[in-house]
Amino acid sequence: MRARVNHPLVFPEPSATISSMSTPRRAFLLALAIALVVVVFSMGTSFTFSAESPERARGSAVFWLLPAVAFASPLWIPAVLPARWRRASVAVQWLSAAALLVPLRYAGAVTFHQFQLYPLPLFSITIFGVAAMLGAGCIAAIAVLLLPSFHRVVGKAT
C-alpha cells in the first residue's frame, strides 16, 4: 500500500457528511427566485407607473429589476454556488434560510391584511393569492435549504 503524502497542494477529501445540493433542489430554488423577481418587479413598476407620469416612469423597469434580484438573492445564491464548495454551501444555505424570513414577513403581512379585508370591496383575490403563494414558497424554500442539515445532525446523533 502506498502511504498518502501530506503535501500542502493536495487537498483533503471532502467529508462524506457534507453533501452538495441536488439538481431538483437547485431547480426549485431557481424557479422560486424567478417567481419572486417577477412579482417584485411587476409590483414595483406598476406602482411607479400609477404614481408617476409616463415620462418620469420610463426608467423604472431597470430600477426595479435591481431590487427584485437583490430581494430574491437568498434563493438564487445557494442554487448557483458550485458543488465543490461544500462547507461554504452549508453556511450559505443557513444564512439564506435566515434571510428568507424577510420576504416571508412581507408576504405574510400582505396575506393577513388581505384576509382582514375579505368582506369589504377592497379585498383583492389576486393580491391575496400571490402573497399566499409567495409565503408558501418561502416556507418551502426554507425547508429545502435546511432539511438536509437537520438530517446530518440527526444522523450524527444516532
Descriptive terms for the model:
mainly alpha, flat
What does this structure look like?
With 158 residues, the protein is an all-alpha fold. The protein is 71% helix and 0% strand. It has six helices and no strands. The chain has helices at residues 23-51, 60-71, 73-80, 86-99, 101-116, 125-157. The longest helix is centred in the last third of the chain and has 33 residues, at 125-157. It is flat and about 60 Å long. The protein starts with 22 loop residues before the first helix and ends with a helix.
Major β-sheet, in short?
A: none
**Approximately how much beta-strand content do the residues carry?**
under 5%
Number of helices in the DSSP assignment: 6
Uncertain segments are: 10-18
How many β-strands, per DSSP? Answer: 0
Global morphology = flat
The pLDDT mean sits at: 84
What is the rounded distance between the termini?
33 Å
The helix content, as a percent range, equals over 70%
Element string (H = helix, E = strand): HHHHHH
Radius of gyration: 21 Å
Topology:
Blueprint: H1 23-51, H2 60-71, H3 73-80, H4 86-99, H5 101-116, H6 125-157
In summary, what is this structure?
With 158 residues, the protein is an all-alpha fold.
